[in-house]
Amino acid sequence: MSLTEEINKRRTFGIISHPDAGKTTLTEKLLLFGGAIQSAGAVKSNKIKKTATSDFMEIEKQRGISVATSVMAFNYKGTKINILDTPGHKDFAEDTYRTLTAVDSVILVIDCANGVEAQTKKLMEVCRMRNTPVIVFINKMDREGQDPFDLLDEIEDILKIKVRPLSWPIGIGATFKGVYNMFEKHLNLFDASKTKLARDIVSISDLNDSALDTQIGETPANKLREDIELIEGVYEEFNEQQYLDGTLAPVFFGSALNNFGVQELLDAFIKIAPFPRSRTTDVREIAPTEDNFSGFVFKIHANLDPNHRDRIAFLRICSGKFERNKFYQHIRNNKKLKFSNPTSFMAQDKSVIDEAFPGDVIGLYDSGNFKIGDTLTEGEIMNFQGIPSFSPEIFKELINKDPMKSKQLEKGINQLTDEGVAQLFTQQPGNRKIIGTVGELQFEVIQYRLKHEYGASADFMAKNFYKACWMTSDDDSKIEDFVKRKAQYIAEDKDGNLVFLAQTQFLLQSAQADYPEITFHTTSEFK
Ligand code: GDP
C-alpha cells in the first residue's frame, strides 16, 4: 500500500467530555461496534487488572478517575481508527489539552440532562484554538433530559459553533426507542443491550412507511415525521467543509449504555472525519505525505511496572513512515536514537510493530530522553508547534523532608515534570522549586510517585501566586529592568525562560500598565 493510501485510511481522534457524560461508555461501545472487543466491560475490567500491578495507577483506582491517557486502535470497514482517550477530571485538564494536539478531530460527549457543562466549554475552547473538527454526541437519551431542540440551541449559544443534527431521537427517557439516521436517511431499531452487540429489529428507509407506525406507534411516528420536517426546514444541509474547518458541528443523539445511536455515529464518522492533516513546525508546514518521517511526543507515561524505571513516550507520527531500528534525530538533545521495541496499541493489546504511518500513535520505551513536545525527524532541524504549557493555577514550593534523599528528590521532580505531571519553576536565591499545576490532585500524585518510584519524601508549602506569565519584548532592557525590580516574583521555567509569578490579577494588570513594552503571556508558546 502506498503512503497516501495508508494516510487516507487513518482517522485519529479524541473523545472528550465533562466527567460522567459517558466518554468511557461510548469508547467501549465504539470498540464493540468496531469488532475490537466482544463484550462491553472488557475495557474497564482490564483497567482494574493493570491497577493491581501498579502503584501509580492505584491512585486512579482509589479515586475512580482516569489519570492516564491511553490509545486504542482498531480496524473498521477498511478504516484504521485510532482513539486517544483523555482524562475527564479537571485536575488533569492539561493532559487532555496536550492530547488534543495529537488528534485530527474530536467527538464531544454531552449528557442530555446536564447539557453543556464547565469542562465541555473549556475543551471546546481548546478545539477552537486549532480549528479541530468536532462531532457532538448527545448521550443518555434513555433518561429524562432536556428537549433535543433546546439542547441544540444551548450548544450553539454556549459553545459558539453552528450545529446540524445528523441523527434524531425517537422519544426521550422511558419512551426512547432509538434514533433516525438523518445522514443515511434510514432508521434502524435495535434491541437495547448494555453489553452485547444488538440485533436489528427493523430497518426502514422511508419515514412515510406505515411499518414505522406499527413499530413505534402512531403518535411517536408522527412526532418523528414532524421533527424531521422541522429540522430540514430550519437547518441548512450538512456542509462537510464547514465541519472540517471547525465551524460546524454535526450532532448525533443516542444512549451509549444501551447501544443506541452508536452505529450511526461510527458509520458517519468514518465517512466525514478528516484523515491525518498537515502540522506546523517552527520552520515550515509538514504534510503527512512527505517521504521523510517526523513526529512528536505528546505524552509520557510512567511505566506501569514499579520495578522498572523506564517510561513510555507516546509519539504521534506526522509524516513519512516510521521504521523499527532505524536511527532518527532527537532535535532537542541533538542525538540520534533508534527504537527496537516500538509498540502499537490495538484495542487492549500492545504489540511490537515494524512500521507505522501518519496518524498512528506509537509507544517508545524511554529511559529519560524524552520530554513532552519533543520532535523526532530523519535529520531536518525543526520543532512541531502547538504544544504549549498553560499557566498553572495552583503553586506550591517543594520542601524536602529527608535531606539524605535530596538527589532522589531532584531526579524525581525533574522526571515527573518532564512527563508533564506538573510544571517546575526555579526561584533564586537558593534554587527554590515551585511546582505549578491546574489541580490539587497532581500534588498528591507527585508526592505519591516521589515516594514510591524515587524513595524521596516531599512536602508542599502553598504559594500565593495567581498566574505564571512568560515575557517578551522588543527591548530586552525593559525585561531586565522589570526582573530587577520584581526579583522576588521572577522564576525560570525548565527551558530557562523567565516568568513573572503574579500574585493577583490586579498586580498583573499594573505590571502590564507600568511596562507597556513587555507582553505578558499565559501560555509558553507565542510565536
Ligand atoms: P465518563 O466519566 O465520561 O467516562 O463517563 P462514564 O462512561 O464512566 O459514564 C458515567 C455514568 O453514566 C456511568 O454510570 C454510566 O453507566 C452512565 N451512562 C453512560 N452512558 C449512559 C447512557 O446512555 N444512559 C444512562 N442512563 N447512563 C449512562
UniProtKB/TrEMBL annotation:
Assigned keywords, A-Z: Cytoplasm, GTP-binding, Nucleotide-binding, Protein biosynthesis
Protein name (database record): Peptide chain release factor 3
CDD domains to which the protein is assigned, alphabetical: RF3, RF3_II, RF3_III
Transmembrane segment boundaries: none
UniProt main location, coarse: cytoplasm
Domain of life: Bacteria
Function: Increases the formation of ribosomal termination complexes and stimulates activities of RF-1 and RF-2. It binds guanine nucleotides and has strong preference for UGA stop codons. It may interact directly with the ribosome. The stimulation of RF-1 and RF-2 is significantly reduced by GTP and GDP, but not by GMP.
Localization per Swiss-Prot or TrEMBL: Cytoplasm
HAMAP family: Rel_fac_3 (MF_00072)
